[in-house]
């Protein structure tokens, strides 16, 4: 009997020793894979993680998920990434739990499901993963913000209506819905919100949440442009130039490009130079054309503007070039001032929207 127990004991000891040896080898192999991964040797890392993942190592499964998600060595594949994250997450690996939650939130490799996303991120947070804890905190704030903006929007507040439109448009705290986004943007636009008017113009132009309609797009772009929105002014210039949603009119196009350029828009500035150079919508004026291009050259070294400056300068006297450069400096000063005023206005808008959030926490 004693000999029998001795044999059993020897077998168990051998199994323990073998298990320990295999564990040490596994740990060593994983560390080799992780070092290779961190050093950018993805081919070796993938081979290591793939081998260990098939043996149910949650750390390797997590890294394999990362490599499929980011397309490192293998083709980007969210379904495979989800599969490996899920395997590791079910074994309690916090990093995989958080990544799995994010994929549920974004609908990557699986149908979008905020409930499941929250569930897995919460599991990771409960294990002390700071990233997950922070994410849940932000998610809570966003959920509260959505509730407050919905309440404000339904009570007729323009800022609340715009913010609600944004959240539906981007799919934040709610399933993305362009039709619903359009509905709330339109309510805000009708109350005179310039950003909502601009967005409504874009949605009509692109046919997002509404049937494409250039005439309506033009109408809302104009409303925003008249309130000083630079993007709307630039777009209005383009629509007049191309006859999109309105009868083609180079004079009106020039007018709106000029307004956008005066607020520092580089695309408008470049187009304005072209219109002065060709006499489109304005009397041909090489001095003014050079001035427009030179503003861009001096502020951003724009390659197109540099070539245009050289081209126009060949048609001008040195006195005209000097005059144009002087005008460009004066123009730059005005543009900086206009940009500062625009930034201050945007800050005030953000502050007002933040105040609404604070006043309506629930």
Structure description:
Among the domains are: 11-128, Tetratricopeptide repeat domain (Serine Threonine Protein Phosphatase 5, Tetratricopeptide repeat); 239-362, Serine Threonine Protein Phosphatase 5, Tetratricopeptide repeat (Alpha Horseshoe). Helix content is 79%, strand content 0%. The protein has 17 helices and no strands. The radius of gyration is 31 Å and the shape is flat. The model is unreliable at 11-24 and 336-362 (pLDDT under 50).
Bin the strand percentage.
Answer: under 5%
> Which spans have pLDDT < 50 for at least 5 consecutive residues?
11-24, 336-362
Structural class by secondary-structure content: mainly alpha
The first-level CATH class name of the domain at 239-362: Mainly Alpha
Number of helices: 17
Measured between the Cα atoms of the first and last residue, the distance is: 75 Å
The helix content, as a percent range, equals over 70%
Order of helices and strands: HHHHHHHHHHHHHHHHH
CATH architecture label of the domain at 239-362: Alpha Horseshoe
Radius of gyration in whole Å, from Cα? 31 Å
The rough form would be described as: flat
From the 3D structure, determine the CATH topology of the domain at 239-362: Serine Threonine Protein Phosphatase 5, Tetratricopeptide repeat
Report mean pLDDT, rounded to a whole number. 82
Number of strands: 0
What does the largest sheet look like?
none
């Amino acid at each position: 009997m004693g000999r029998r127990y001795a044999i059993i004991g020897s077998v168990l000891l051998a199994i323990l020793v073998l298990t320990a040896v295999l564990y040490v080898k596994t740990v060593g192999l994983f560390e080799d894979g992780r070092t290779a991964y961190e050093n950018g040797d993805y081919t070796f890392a993938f081979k290591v993680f793939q081998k260990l993942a098939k043996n149910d190592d949650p750390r390797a499964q997590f890294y394999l998920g990362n490599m499929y998600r980011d397309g490192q060595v293998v083709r980007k594949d969210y379904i495979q990434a989800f599969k490996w994250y899920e395997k590791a997450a079910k074994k309690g690996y916090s990093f995989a739990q958080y990544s799995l939650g994010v994929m549920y939130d974004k609908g990557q490799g699986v149908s979008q499901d905020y409930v499941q996303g929250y569930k897995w991120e919460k599991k990771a947070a409960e294990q002390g993963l700071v990233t997950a804890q922070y994410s849940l905190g932000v998610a809570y704030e966003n959920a509260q913000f959505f509730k407050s903006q919905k309440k404000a929007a339904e009570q007729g507040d323009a800022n609340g209506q715009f913010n609600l439109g944004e959240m539906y448009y981007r799919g934040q705290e709610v399933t993305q819905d362009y039709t619903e986004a359009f509905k709330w943007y339109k309510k805000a636009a009708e109350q005179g919100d310039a950003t909502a008017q601009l967005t409504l113009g874009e949605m009509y132009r692109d046919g997002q949440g509404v049937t494409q309609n250039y005439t309506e797009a033009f109408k809302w772009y104009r409303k925003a442009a008249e309130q000083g929105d630079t993007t709307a002014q630039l777009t209005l210039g383009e629509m007049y130039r191309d006859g999109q949603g309105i009868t083609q009119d180079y004079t009106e196009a020039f007018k709106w490009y000029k307004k956008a350029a005066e607020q520092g828009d580089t695309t408008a500035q470049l187009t304005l130079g072209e219109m002065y150079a060709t006499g489109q919508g304005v009397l041909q004026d090489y001095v003014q054309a050079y001035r427009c291009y030179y503003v861009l050259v001096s502020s951003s070294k724009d390659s197109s503007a540099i070539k245009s400056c050289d081209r126009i300068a060949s048609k001008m006297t040195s006195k005209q070039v000097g005059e144009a450069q002087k005008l460009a400096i004066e123009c730059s000063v005005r543009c900086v001032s206009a940009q500062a005023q625009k930034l201050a206005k945007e800050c005030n808008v953000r502050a007002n929207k933040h105040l609404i959030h604070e006043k309506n926490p629930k």
